[in-house]
Each structure stands twice: as C-alpha cells, then as structure tokens.
Amino acid sequence: MTTKKIDRRVFLKRLPLFSDFAPSELDELANRTTELHVARGVPVFHRGDPCQGFHIVIYGQVKLGFLSVEGGEKIVEIVGPGFSFGEALMFMEKPYILSATALADSMLLHISKEAVFSELERNPAFARRMLAGMSRRLHGLISDVESYSLRSGSQRIVGYLLKDEPDGDGAQVTLTISKKSLASRLNLTPEYFSRVLRDLTAHGMISVEGRSITIHDIERLRVYEG
C-alpha cells in the first residue's frame, strides 16, 4: 500500500466538525492527530483494546463488528469517508466493545481524547456537533433494531435496495461492499441474501451483475414479501 504524508490541517478543515476552527486551532489539533494508513483486511483495533481517542475516515471504508460465539462475524456499521467512529467509548473511557477492520485501503485520522476534551471545554459549538454526530449514530442503531425485530429478511433486503429512493424502473444500485458484508450488516446469512436476490431476479424485478443491481419493476419490488 503506497502512502504519502498529507497536510492534516487541510483535511480537518474540510470536515463539518472542525470547519469553523481558526488556523491556530487547526494547527494545535493537527499536532495531536495521528495519520493512519490501513491496508484492506488489516485491523484498526481489536475488541478490548483501550480507546485513546476517535477515528475519522478520510478515504476507504472501515467495518465495525464482532465475532459470535459460533465464530460468525456480525457487522454493526460500515464507516465511509467523512464519518467518524469511537467517540462514545472515548467519553466513557472504556475499552473498545467492537473490532474495526479496513474493508478497503484506507486513510484515517486518529484524534486523541486529550485534544477533544480540551476543545470541548473551550468551544460549546464543537460540543454540540459531537453530540449531534453521536445522536445520529444512535438513531441509526435504533432503526436497525426496529428493522431486525419487525421486518423479515427479504423486506430488509428490499429496504436496502430502495433506501436511496431510486427514480423508477431502470435505476441502478451499486453495492459499495461485498454481498457477504452487506448480508452481515442486515443481520442475514450470505446464503439467504443470495437466495432472495435470485428470487427477485427470477421474478423479473431486478438483475444483478457483480456489485451492480438494476431495478426493473420498482412497484412490485416495493410490495415484495418473499
């Protein structure tokens, strides 16, 4: 994996969390930020490791998850560019309860908890933005629990295909992660996920080519029950 140093201040300034920081504040924050280049498949941290700050994805993807007792992987969240992870445990000063692994060659910025805590004391607007980010994640996790509890597996798959509100027949959905990872994210087995895609294809509602899915009959897809 080829890496080169970047101007961390430039990347920090582009993020909504730090967009109103003055140059001197960005300099101080950048000095307490570590640049991480993580190759695909390499762990960022393991469950049980101490949490010394939080991470922001600059490019690439990181999966957050854990292994079940049976050895299967459960993916809780996929984090992409511009998004962060690890804030809640940083504030709780607890070890990580999930593992993080790069799904693609990725660049991350790790911001130390000392830098965050000192900035929170100085800047109420920064505190509100951090709270808003954690609230959005909590809302997403509650939505996931609702989906797992009240929707069938096939409904979850259809919901994923329609989540960006495609315009109509002929719309394309590109999977940004592997089908296996997406199945885990939806709390499904890979075999079940593939079986539903085959059934949707056989009924003429979609077609699948690699990670590209074309929707042919959006109205029937919306009412599909499996």
Automatic annotation (TrEMBL):
Species the sequence originates in: Massilia cavernae
Domain Cyclic nucleotide-binding: 17-137
Any one GO CC term of the record: cytosol
Organism taxonomic ancestry: Bacteria, Pseudomonadati, Pseudomonadota, Betaproteobacteria, Burkholderiales
Domain HTH crp-type: 151-219
GO MF, one example: DNA binding
InterPro entries for the chain: cNMP-bd_dom, cNMP-bd_dom_sf, Env_Response_Regulators, HTH_CRP, RmlC-like_jellyroll, WH-like_DNA-bd_sf, WH_DNA-bd_sf
KW Cytoplasm (keyword) present: no
Coiled-coil residue spans: none
Name of the protein in its database record: Crp/Fnr family transcriptional regulator
Keywords, alphabetical: DNA-binding, Transcription, Transcription regulation
